[in-house]
Design brief:
CATH superfamily: Gcn5-related N-acetyltransferase (GNAT)
Strand content: 25-35%
Structural class: alpha+beta
CATH topology: Aminopeptidase
Number of domains: 1
Largest sheet: 7 strands, mixed
Mean pLDDT: 83
Number of helices: 5
Order of helices and strands: EEHHHEEEHEHEEE
Strand order of the largest sheet: 2-3-4-5-6-1-7
Distance between the termini: 24 Å
């Protein structure tokens, strides 16, 4: 996930991208979701002991690249890989960008990155787990934590986007935790050389889409 006006492109798992030395082109279907009211339920309890979410204040470039690669490679996250250290540092050193790391028994298990650079909105720019921690209930816990944490700042809305290269249950997952679809689009992305072949999930067209009375998309 990413935002075009702030980054040099979007990750394939989140939208359009224009990367140097591209190694190929792929078409993806991007779905944008938003939450316009704070959650009505209290924060979820941790699904197991030994969990802690901590803000990485001005994380080192090496540590961030480790997180980004470990979490994002299965879902074809590419944009931050192509940024220079200086370009990446300019993002990470901005206090309006939060890299919140989930730790499990002292081991990094995933992270949630919140971007507050376009107030009054907040973007959930990146969210994901290390592959070995998927399937343990940690994803729902981390997303719920990020939602409650973001709303403490009283934004106008919290938003994100996903696409058909993301986890197969990502779209339903976001909607179950309170996000609503407000837009979707097809976009072409350029992949840098050496990018592993994307593992596309079932096309989103298999999720019937309809508009409610307010004109918003929903699936069902």
């Amino acid at each position: 996930m990413g935002r075009a006006q702030r980054h040099t492109g979007h990750d394939v798992s989140g939208g359009a991208v224009a990367l140097p030395n591209a190694g190929g082109i792929i078409t993806t279907l991007v779905t944008c979701l938003e939450m316009t009211t704070p959650p009505a339920t209290p924060p979820r309890p941790a699904p197991c002991s030994g969990l802690e979410v901590r803000l990485a204040r001005r994380p080192s470039i090496a540590f961030y690249r480790f997180l980004y690669a470990a979490v994002g490679e299965p879902w074809t996250w590419t944009v931050r890989r192509c940024l220079s250290d200086a370009e990446l540092a300019a993002i990470l050193d901005d206090p309006r960008v939060e890299v919140n790391v989930l730790w499990a028994d002292g081991v990094p298990a995933g992270y949630a990155e919140l971007d507050r650079r376009a107030p009054p909105d907040v973007e959930l720019a990146y969210l994901g787990l290390m592959p070995e921690f998927i399937g343990q209930g940690l994803g729902a816990y981390l997303l719920d934590w990020a939602i409650h944490h973001a709303w403490r700042g009283r934004p106008r809305r919290l938003w994100l986007h996903t696409c058909d290269l993301d986890h197969p249950r990502a779209l339903d997952f976001y909607q179950k935790l309170g996000f609503r679809i407000y837009d979707r689009r097809t976009t072409e992305a350029h992949l840098p050389p050496g990018t592993p072949a994307p593992r596309r999930r079932a096309p989103l067209e298999q999720h019937p889409m309809r508009r409610d009375r307010q004109g918003r998309f929903s699936s069902g």
